[in-house]
């Protein structure tokens, strides 16, 4: 396949690539309210992620990276995927980080730097592509397992990190720490995939800084205040149920992405469940005030750098030395 064909296939495939039981409502909901000095963020934009077929056998709800939410620096793309069949064979990346978090089922992966494994439900793969890497993703389809579902988040890298050596972190569900803002018996918990929540820190250390939190409520009308670094871009993607943000009274429903305000005096966001099965992802990262030029899986700062990336990939150099010789074992 020629370069144009490879990149076309990549653009279709690579973009695509948890459940908890509700408990009965109690007469009074516990509340974890902010201190007097805490100021909550608000919703500035709301986007519905509509399910769309992607490639062969995948259904994707894309919000960040869609026409409705193209620019949300440093976030490039957020896909909520459901893979009924098919997979994502060997393909390249440069200049960004890809984060794959499984909600149900599992997915095998392998890359040209020698990393290989299986992401199980509740586990995460955090891959910094840097100057160049090849990798493959193979969702596991088996009669005794649920169909693979999860989220893939793409995060831009600052110019100073775009040409670093690739790096990789994988955490199984047992290694992602959990925060209990109101105690272990209370109806809210937070999986701290990266960043910090209520005194619990993740072992993931992203280049450029990025927080990624998985909130689950099992009771309606529960309020929690999540601290966030001042000025960072932040979004919420609602997986299930409905959620009230800040001082608003109207709940936001599942499959919506909510962009939060970034005023300098805001210290975090007040979160309130509006149903007994509220579940959502919260992402936050330092914005990158640099130009972005993206060509499929390549994300650089100028057109000239993209052209250089294409030459490097075609000629197998500057990070792509194994681009035309490496073959993943999970596909070959």
Give a quick summary of the entry.
The chain has 332 residues and is mainly beta. Helix content is 7%, strand content 42%. Belongs to the pirin family.
What would you note in describing this structure?
This protein has 332 residues and is mostly beta strands. The protein has one domain: Jelly Rolls, CATH 2.60.120.10. The protein has two helices and 27 strands. Strands 2-23-20-25-18-15-14 form a seven-stranded antiparallel sheet, with no helix packed on it. The chain has a seven-stranded antiparallel sheet with strand order 3-4-5-12-7-10-13, with no helix packed on it. The longest helix has 13 residues, at 303-315. The model is unreliable at 1-31 (pLDDT under 50).
Shape: globular
- Distance, first to last CA: 16 Å
CATH topology: Jelly Rolls
String of helices and strands: HEEEEEEEEEEEEEEEEEEEEEEEEEEEH
Helical amount among residues, as a percent range?
under 10%
Mean pLDDT: 90
Number of separate helices: 2
Query: From the alpha-carbon coordinates, what is the Rg to the nearest angstrom?
Result: 20 Å
Q: What is the SS-derived class?
A: mainly beta
In what range is the share of β-strand residues?
A: 35-45%
Low-confidence stretches: 1-31
Sheet with the most strands? 7 strands, antiparallel
Number of strands: 27
CATH level 1 name: Mainly Beta
CATH architecture: Sandwich
Domains, number: 1
